[in-house]
Design brief:
The chain has 198 residues and is an all-alpha fold. 77% of the residues lie in helices and 0% in strands. It folds into 2 domains: 1-45, Homeodomain-like (Arc Repressor Mutant, subunit A, Orthogonal Bundle); 56-185, Tetracycline Repressor, domain 2 (Orthogonal Bundle), CATH 1.10.357.10. It has helices at residues 3-19, 26-33, 37-43, 47-72, 76-84, 86-89, 91-97, 100-111, 116-136, 143-164, 167-185.
Length: 198
């Protein structure tokens, strides 16, 4: 990929996250990259084309992150904890802007944008990965339910973190989720239900 094109995608990704897709203009992206509008249009003709590239970048980064967690964590439960604790890892940005995946998916959903399903693929990548981890923990029967429970926790906590900007609340919620996960480790038969655990 051309260096300028990669820079445009990176800057657009950041602006879409901080300002929203709708409120980000070609001019703002071009100014942030430091190129002329003419040079900008040489790489991308429409904002939807940039959006598509941004989503692909996010998918690639997500898969890379999950692969890294696979490499550094010895057990599936440890890998799920990496996901749960991402709220702390990315606290500085989440408290200001929320979750990048959730905010973009919500905005595109409100617009009934044709690329809303493409944006939602990032959630699907996370869900499929989490299902795999729960199956490896012996939770075959409830693996998908557990995966969705973790995703719902992440999105709900990120939203409230952005609303109240209360780090202690986030820490408490993470601790509760880690305790729930530990209870699953002790019961690998898959008998736990997510209902009522919190």
């Amino acid at each position: 990929m051309h260096v300028t094109q990669a820079a445009i995608i990176e800057c657009a990704d950041e602006l879409f996250y901080q300002q929203g897709f709708t409120h980000t203009s070609f001019a703002q992206i071009a100014a942030k990259v430091g190129i002329s509008r003419g040079n900008f249009y040489h790489h991308f003709k429409t904002k939807d084309a940039i959006l598509d590239a941004v989503i692909e970048r996010r998918l690639e980064k997500t898969r890379h992150m999950l692969k890294a967690w696979e490499g550094k964590s010895n057990t599936p439960a440890q890998r799920v904890r990496c996901f749960i604790k991402i709220l702390t890892t990315n606290w500085s940005s989440i408290r200001l802007y929320g979750c990048p995946v959730g905010t973009l998916s919500t905005e595109l959903g409100k617009l009934d944008h044709p690329q809303r399903k493409h944006a939602g693929e990032v959630f699907t990548v996370f869900k499929d990965w989490l299902v795999h981890q729960f199956v490896a923990m012996g939770q075959q029967t409830l693996a998908e339910e557990h995966a969705l429970h973790v995703l719902a926790f992440s999105q709900g906590t990120a939203t409230l973190a952005s609303t109240y900007r209360d780090k202690s609340f986030v820490d408490r919620e993470i601790e509760r989720m880690c305790q729930w996960l530990q209870s699953l480790e002790k019961s690998p038969a898959g008998s736990h239900s997510t209902k009522g655990d919190r």
